[in-house]
Design brief:
The chain has 215 residues and is an all-alpha fold. It has one domain. Helix content is 57%, strand content 0%. The N and C termini lie far apart (46 Å). 30% of the residues are buried.
Amino acid sequence: MLPRVRWHRPRAAAKLAAPSRRREPLDNISHTLAGVLLGECLARMRGGAMPLQPRRTLVVVLAAVGSNLPDLDLLDSGWHDRLDYLLHHRGYSHSVVAAALAGALLAVLARGWLHWRGHRPNARDWGVIGAIALLGPLLHLALDYGNSYGVHPWWPLDNRWRYGDSLFIVEPWLWLAGTPLLATLRSRSARTLLALALGAIVLAAAASGLARPAV
């Protein structure tokens, strides 16, 4: 079991120190759009044995999923009090070690999908697939590093926070700039998956209180 930091603190101090989880800003829309852009860039590389369209679909979906995988630590947030949540979110899962493990998992899933679909990728195809499987989670870390919350990229060797303090956690301008990517995707399945993912994220944001109408 991974070690957790335990703080001895008065209950009142904990309430003051930890804002409500319902107002915790989480912007996976920007992560998804950035992942799709990365996937589109790598998917256009030619020279592999796979047909271009199936490879494009696989690479874009891998990039979109990989760019969100580090936030799976949110599934663990309900088991701890609010201050522990603030301490550990973007902790273990937002490290280079975890990104490498996530990339390996994505590569295994991609191999299973390719076998199921009967594709025979060559070394160049695998180079693109392996690169996108690793770069997706690393891109997530890079974007999260850019805001004031920061990440623990070198855990477990170094448990200090690193942050660039240059981006807000929720960036609507990135949404506006990235959403037109939907129209550039040639794969209908990729467009559908991305549209569904963005819709689910918007609904989740509204349900959590992140997106509230102005009054």
